[in-house]
Amino acid sequence: MVQSMTGYAAASAESPRGTLALELRSVNARFLDVQLRVAEELRSLEPLLRELIAARIARGKVDCRFFLNAETAARPAQLNAGALERLRALGAAAKQAFPEAEPLRVADVLHWPGVVAEAPADEARMRAAAESLGRRVLDELVAARRREGEKLGGAVAAQVAKMRERLASIAPLLPQAIAAYREKLAERLREAIGSADDERIRAEIALFAAKVDVDEELTRLRGHLDEAERSLKSGGPAGKRLDFLAQELNREANTLAAKAASQPIAGAALELKLLVEQMREQVQNIE
Asked: Which residues contact 101 (CB under 8 A, 6 or more apart)?
């Protein structure tokens, strides 16, 4: 099944430092382009996120927001004995310099930098929590891209089927166009020289038939449509291949329109070009 490059997913999880929150958005792009906005305290986990995303997504622009709500963390704290001793010495020196100064309050002591020492976070548990969250959000993102890809694949398959119908309608029109040209040419010869020269008519008809022969274009068009169907069925990253096939279909449709021997053939070629353009618009969003 083909995948879309458009999707969104978000989730949160508890960690030793607080609540981790991860949000992923993806849109179409020529290649894989990962844009990370990571909280400063989580910078060490940035390579892990990049690896997880690259392993699951082949193409598209992915915006990633990864942040931490540390207020939810219940981390034990303790007093730093060394910092307390340094503060006590500073307080004593200040008391000697300013005998009338008020003594330090407990609140002042606790707010002094370095006095309250928080317990070190468990880096292994932190990494495990981030990896688990990353895999869960990526699962949701990939599922969303697959659902969208299923719709896109169905739309492209329907357009391919309509193109086949147009091709099937063109083939029977060519003999009719040549017969009409024969009658028109014979009429002109009769008006010009008073009779219809069979030999000259045959030569002109042969030249006209060679100019308007579209068998080669029809064969290539059918081949490109066959390849498009195979790409849709095989799934995986098929967007670039389908985009290339759309370009080739458009080129052959232009040649077909240029060789149109009658108005019905020209109309069918124009409808074919419109369907190819619609297909190109759809495949731009396929991974």
From this structure: 94, 95
pTM of the full predicted structure?
0.69
Q: What is the pLDDT of residues 110-138, one digit of tens each?
A: 777 777 765 555 788 899 999 999 999 99
Q: How far is CA 108 from CA 112, 114, 236, in A?
A: 6, 12, 62
Sheet of 18-27, strands arranged across: 7-15, 18-27, 60-69, 32-38
- CA–CA gap between residue 74 and residue 8 (Å, rounded): 31
Q: Tens digits of per-residue pLDDT, 136-166?
A: 999 999 999 999 999 999 999 999 999 999 8
Say yes or no: domain 7-73+123-145 is CATH 3.30.230.10.
yes
- Amino acid making up residue 169: S
Can you state the angle between helices 239-258 and 123-170, rounded to 10 degrees? 20
Q: In 10-80, which residue ranges form alpha helices assigned H by DSSP? A: 46-56
Residue 252: CB partners within 8 Å, gap ≥ 6?
Answer: 217, 220, 221, 224
**pLDDT tens digits, 186-195:** 666 666 555 5
Answer CATH for 147-283 from 1.50.10, 1.20.140, 1.10.10, 1.10.4030: 1.20.140
* Domain boundaries along the sequence of the chain: 7-73+123-145, 77-118, 147-283
Distance, CA of 187 to CA of 128 (rounded, Å): 86
